[in-house]
Amino acid sequence: MTAEWLDIGTLDDIPRQGARTVATPQGDIAVFRTLGDEVFALDDRCPHKGGPLSQGIVHGNAVTCPLHNWVIDLASGEARPRSRLRQADPAQAGGGQAVARAGAVACPPPFPTVVPGLVPGIHVGQLA
Questions:
Q1: What pTM was estimated for this model as a whole?
Q2: Which residues touch 127 (CB under 8 Å, ≥6 apart)?
């Protein structure tokens, strides 16, 4: 191989949806293999907190950092934007009970009064 390319082994040396590390004078390189047999190489450090990307989960053309779940694009090495499926709903606990309010509101109503042993909406005869 030339000085620009480093022989790292055969494709079979890298598990599908997995990674192997290669030590270089500049630091460890993580070499990833996708399910479709594409191969990518990145510094083995997450741009967030330096986590070992080679220990992450490969999915599609991305790897998820094992430390804080940052998703790194294998082609660019950049973190993908975090997407939120939906707004978090408020939840509270008190008196040994926990409740969650469906639909986020700026100022949730006060915690409901709970009578121990009674579940709202269920009649006592239904508990047996």
A1: 0.62
A2: 119
Residue 42 φ then ψ, to 5°: -140, 160
Q: What is the pLDDT of residues 74-100, one digit of tens each?
A: 999 999 886 554 455 556 566 666 656
pLDDT digits (tens, 9 = 90+) for 61-80: 999 999 999 999 999 999 98
In degrees, rounded to 5, the angle at the alpha carbon of residue 57 between the alpha carbons of residues 55 and 62 is 115
Q: Is the dihedral of CA 21, 43, 5, 61 positive or negative?
A: positive
Neighbour count for residue 10 (Cβ, 10 Å): 7
**Strand partners of residue 53:** none
The structure tokens 């008196």 sit at 95
